[in-house]
Write a structure and sequence with these properties.
This protein has 274 residues and is of the alpha+beta class. The chain contains 6 helices and 11 strands. It has 2 domains: 100 residues, Alpha-Beta Plaits (2-Layer Sandwich); 138 residues, Nuclear Transport Factor 2, Chain: A (Roll), CATH 3.10.450.
Length: 274
């Protein structure tokens, strides 16, 4: 949004009122907006056009970011059904903007990476760190939900079409959330592979995240898993989860998981070897 301040306001007054009055007001209607930034334009000279300093046509470039175009259109449709909200926003804008000069544009980005754009590099690095942190939390949340016997929440960590393979001794790979949920169903009869657990404790470390793209990553996580069966035995395993995680509209989710085992104690079944 390209915006010009109302006549009679200095740039300093405009910035102060925009930030301290208008921004909090707009945020009431900003549930669909993921990023809201204001870039204020201070007059300056340009050597190619001479040294004369001229006030720019606009005083601020305001960015509104949405998850996607559909989210933006949904918000717009909702506002059209609330004329009182539109009138309220317009009345607040009248206090600081020359609304006759306001313009809205949709931005299409083309970037030349010249190897010296520190801002973009830093922004990309921060985004990658945020993604990595979410993925590591995803791995740890799995262990938390398993140990606290919350299988319905556990399923939300996986994609609908996930594939999960805990080894031939446990059974064939589960395909999809429904099959995976059945695996965690505590109502089944105990077997040597799944003897029925009174308690478990999963310990994760050495989480290595390798991004294949902005939307997909491979994750290796070392795991030590202690179990106490309903018969009071304590089988244990040591190994690694081999995961593929993907970005979804709800965040990062596990698309593929395979357990590979380095060693087991009191659990004499076939495992996929590390």
């Amino acid at each position: 949004m390209l915006l010009k301040r109302k006549a009679g306001l200095s740039l300093e007054e405009f910035i102060e009122r925009y930030e301290n009055e208008h921004v909090p007001f707009v945020e009431q209607y900003a549930s669909a907006i993921t990023h809201y930034s204001r870039h204020y334009l201070h007059p300056g000279s340009h050597v190619i056009f001479g040294d004369r300093v001229e006030e720019p046509e606009y005083d601020v470039i305001t960015e509104l970011w949405y998850k996607d175009r559909a989210a933006f259109e949904h918000q717009q449709e909702g506002l059209r059904g609330r004329p009182e909200a539109i009138a309220s926003v317009a009345a607040d804008e009248e206090k600081i903007f020359d609304r006759s000069k306001s313009r809205t544009v949709y931005v299409e980005d083309h970037i030349s990476d010249l190897g010296a754009d520190v801002g973009d590099s830093l922004q990309g690095a921060v985004r990658r760190l945020q993604d990595k942190d979410e993925i590591i939390d995803l791995v740890h949340r799995y262990s938390l939900l398993v140990d606290h016997k919350r299988p319905d929440e556990l399923m939300e960590l996986f994609t609908e079409d996930c594939t999960v393979d805990y080894g031939p001794g446990i059974g064939p790979p589960s395909r999809g959330r429904v099959a995976l949920r059945a695996m965690f169903d505590g109502g089944r009869e105990p077997t040597s592979a799944r003897p029925g657990f009174a308690a478990t404790s999963h310990h994760n470390a050495n989480v290595l995240v390798t991004f294949e793209s902005a939307e997909r990553a491979r994750v290796l996580t070392s795991v030590y898993a202690w179990h106490r069966t309903t018969g009071d035995a304590t089988p244990r395993i040591w190994g690694y989860y081999h995961d593929v995680v993907v970005r979804t509209p709800d965040g990062w989710r596990i698309s593929e998981r395979q357990l590979r085992v380095a060693g087991a104690e009191d659990w004499p079944i076939d495992w996929l070897p590390l």
